[in-house]
Amino acid sequence: MVNLGALAGVAFAAIFAVVDGRPQHHHIHHRSGLVSAKVDAGDSYASTNGTNSTSIGNTTLPDVIRGVNIGGWLILEKWMTPDIFDNTDAVDQYSFDSTDGAEAKLKQHWETYFTEADVQKIASWGINAMRIPIGYWDFFNDTTPYIRGADAYLDKAIGWARKAGLKVLVDCHGSPGSQNGFDNSGRSGNVKWQTSDNLSNSIKALQNIATKYGSTTYADVVFAIQLVNEPISWAQNNFTLTQTWTQQAYHAVKSASTNPHLQILMHDGFMTPWAWQTIGAQLNGPDTNLSTAPFAIDTHLYQNQVAADSTLTQAQHIAKACNWTASNLLPSTANLPVYVGEFSAQTNICVYLNGTTVGGDACYEDGCQCSCNVDIQDWGQPLVKATRMFLEAELEAFEEGARGWFLWSYKGPGAWGLRNLVEFGVLGKGVGVGERMFLNQCGFE
Ligand SMILES: *[C@@H]1O[C@H](CO)[C@@H](O)[C@H](O)[C@H]1NC(C)=O
Ligand SMILES: *[C@@H]1O[C@H](CO)[C@@H](O)[C@H](O)[C@H]1NC(C)=O
Ligand SMILES: *[C@@H]1O[C@H](CO)[C@@H](O)[C@H](O)[C@H]1NC(C)=O
Ligand SMILES: *[C@@H]1O[C@H](CO)[C@@H](O)[C@H](O)[C@H]1NC(C)=O
Ligand SMILES: *[C@@H]1O[C@H](CO)[C@@H](O)[C@H](O)[C@H]1NC(C)=O
Ligand SMILES: *[C@@H]1O[C@H](CO)[C@@H](O)[C@H](O)[C@H]1NC(C)=O
Ligand SMILES: *[C@@H]1O[C@H](CO)[C@@H](O)[C@H](O)[C@H]1NC(C)=O
Ligand SMILES: *[C@@H]1O[C@H](CO)[C@@H](O)[C@H](O)[C@H]1NC(C)=O
Ligand SMILES: CC(=O)N[C@H]1CO[C@H](CO)[C@@H](O)[C@@H]1O
């Protein structure tokens, strides 16, 4: 997930409100006697078609990737797992790794936060792929300031995925020097990815990743490797340099891989997939088949990261989500597949009993609930339904215009968590994540 610092506004406060379970404004009506978070028995559901698969060589890939991120596991993010940071001054993986007893705590976390039972649960919901973030430090031949060992758990997850029939995207989420200064890169603060040897060292780590996970041994389960996550295109980073590096990294990963069908993903650098069409055409060729193209773009589409989004009603959020197909995803003629590698059902809205929504984090009428400061287990039906409507619109837009999607994140807090969304009736019911209550919201049909 991306935390855009000062811009995050309400959303950032909301994260902590949800984590703490404490309302930020004591005059807000919360936990307002609406105890049932279940959807009405009388509601009707439709099942969108399951997704067919296409096989090439040893690789069989669903035609629509319906995925989830396994965030907060192999790279710590404090807002997602605050408990592990208790009694430390650490703010990120880097600072955590030098605290007392860090190694034992990390092993315990790796061992328990995500298990084979979770993979089975995910598969039972109709999810067919996982994007698994991991840091470069487990694949780097020289010493780094990070504790190693997370890669053994990536291997376990890949084994569980293989058994459950899920595909895996190995996502190099933390790169040398930090590509964005966000905690999700391993180290918050300075961005030094494009200084010193960090760019070439990023490629060295990717070569090791590709030698292993890009081999034919993994071709039945690892369908893609991601070069870098969310490199910023401002401040210390230069987007032109990012694009030059991407082509070098692409060729390095390709030559280190023996799986000829491996896909190589690059995050768009917050410049939208449109900015990658020329490179896409160069790497994929002019007549690429979108389901087999080797180079693809990862874009992240949130509606809770900038203050302006927190003024929107849910109807406006939905209109914006539907619009993404045209505004942020590419037409099939672009020869460049796009994955929505991160998005969330979480918006900052308040919902009245009659279903009307306003943006923000405060409302003043009995029964009204705001998504950012009421625990999801206490959500009444109006809030559950409004959130479901938005999430279904997002999925409709992605399945129309993208190769696939990965929700952030399986165990995210509140409405950030797929686990919570399924448990509290925001997505899926009988047949899983392909199930729809609000068909054709975007008018594509
Ligand atoms: C998709 O839906 C159609 C019509 O309901 C059905 O005939 C077909 O078997 C479905 N395909 C899959 C893969 O579920
Ligand atoms: C899956 O394949 C079947 C048989 O070719 C076809 O009828 C159906 O429309 C396909 N479903 C999807 C979702 O593409
Ligand atoms: C398929 O997998 C087998 C066993 O791992 C391997 O020997 C073979 O080269 C693979 N074929 C392709 C086309 O990747
Ligand atoms: C890292 O070390 C291994 C084992 O010595 C070697 O096979 C590999 O080529 C090295 N990777 C890089 C990128 O130098
Ligand atoms: C980014 O790098 C390119 C190529 O080196 C250079 O032409 C351009 O001026 C740089 N942009 C900025 C904003 O520094
Ligand atoms: C893309 O490639 C797959 C696998 O070879 C094939 O089934 C499909 O028909 C191709 N699609 C197009 C549009 O060529
Ligand atoms: C839809 O996208 C276009 C740009 O493609 C933009 O001009 C317009 O404001 C967007 N509308 C909404 C509701 O987001
Ligand atoms: C829904 O309730 C709110 C708050 O009482 C009210 O302002 C709004 O007009 C109502 N909307 C409709 C469509 O009844
Ligand atoms: C792993 C690595 O090469 N890190 C380097 C990134 O760049 C900074 C300086 O810009 C170095 O201090 C790091 O050693």
UniProtKB/TrEMBL annotation:
Residues 1-21 form the signal peptide. Transmembrane segments: none annotated. SUPFAM superfamilies: (Trans)glycosidases. Its EC number is 3.2.1.58. The keyword Glycoprotein does not apply. It comes from Zasmidium cellare ATCC 36951. GO terms for molecular function: glucan exo-1,3-beta-glucosidase activity. Residues 105-347 form the Glycoside hydrolase family domain. Gene3D superfamilies: Glycosidases. InterPro entries: GH (IPR017853), Glyco_hydro_5 (IPR001547), Glycosyl_hydrolase_5 (IPR050386). One of its GO terms (biological process) is glucan catabolic process. Belongs to the glycosyl hydrolase 5 (cellulase A) family. This is glucan 1,3-beta-glucosidase. It is found in: Secreted. Its main location: secreted. It comes from the Eukaryota. Pfam families: Cellulase. It catalyses: Successive hydrolysis of beta-D-glucose units from the non-reducing ends of (1->3)-beta-D-glucans, releasing alpha-glucose. Keywords: Cell wall biogenesis/degradation, Glycosidase, Hydrolase, Secreted, Signal. GO terms for cellular component: cell surface; extracellular region.
